[in-house]
Amino acid sequence: PLLDMAKALQLERSDEWKEICELYELPVAVPPDLSLVERVRKACSEINVVEPLLKRYRALAQSGSTKEKMSLLRRLVVADPKNGRHRKQLSALEVVRHGDIKTEAKTAILGHDRESLQAIQDELNLPSWVRPPEEKVAQKIAETLRQWHSEELSVRAGELIVELQDACEADSVDRTIRLLDLWDDLATTPDFRPNAEWATIVDPIREWKNGELLRRSWEERCGILLRNLTHALENRNLYDGEKLWFKLEQEGYSVPDLH
Asked: Residues 25-66: pLDDT tens digits?
């Protein structure tokens, strides 16, 4: 209502109204201070954001979890930054949450629960902590997750080794190429730990694949030259035929002597 009244008092023809008031010796109304009106409008806007959050926080105060309360308080800190009470309450809850995190992380590690441990790490990495968690706790969680990831990569590496051997024994070059691409991606993953034994298997397979690709390329070149040679001979073009025959000889492809 106050803002509506201020808006109504902002007369478009205020100068004419002032002249009429002065003519009839009536008191001239002072126009509302627009800067003050804007400040009131801004304050109302902030209240409209903060009040619903406060209402929800009060509802959680008795029965909500620590994480739920922290989530709302973090929103209140952003919405109402001048109110230091929100930060103080959040800081106190974070101390409680630090203890909960230690217990939850220990349980997840003992149960090899990667999903839960990853969720804890994601929470620790949030930039909105007023009181940052203990570095040693975050470090232990990160090291455990890296170790688990490394173990998973090792299992996948063993599976790829078997698939590569099967592809090579089946002379499947294309499948071998795809599997080697997967292997290279795996080997460049930060938590991947190389195994010397794997190299003794993968390197010969890679050499076989490279040799097969070279053979394919040679057969393709020779096939083109041979078709062109056949075409030249069919058209009795001995000049071009001799050049093509010579190129085939250079490629190491055995062809009958044209003479």
From this structure: 777 766 666 566 556 556 555 556 688 888 888 888 888 899
Q: 20: pLDDT confidence band, cut at 50, 70 and 90?
A: confident
CA atoms within 13 A on the CB side of 55: 6
Q: What is the pLDDT of residues 144-184, one digit of tens each?
A: 999 999 999 999 999 999 999 999 999 999 999 999 999 99
* C-alpha atoms less than 13 angstroms from C-alpha of 13 in its C-beta half-sphere: 5
Could you tell me the end-to-end alpha-carbon distance of the chain, in angstroms, rounded to an integer? 111
What's the one-letter identity of residue 133? P
Contact 255, 225 (CB under 8 A): no
In a 3-state reduction of DSSP, which class is residue 80?
A: coil
- Which residues neighbour 141 within 8 Å (Cβ) at sequence distance 6 or greater? 105, 117, 120, 121, 124
d(Cα 155, Cα 251) in Å, to the nearest integer?
44
Provide the residue type at 78 as one letter: V
Tokens of 30: 């002072």
N residues, the chain: 259
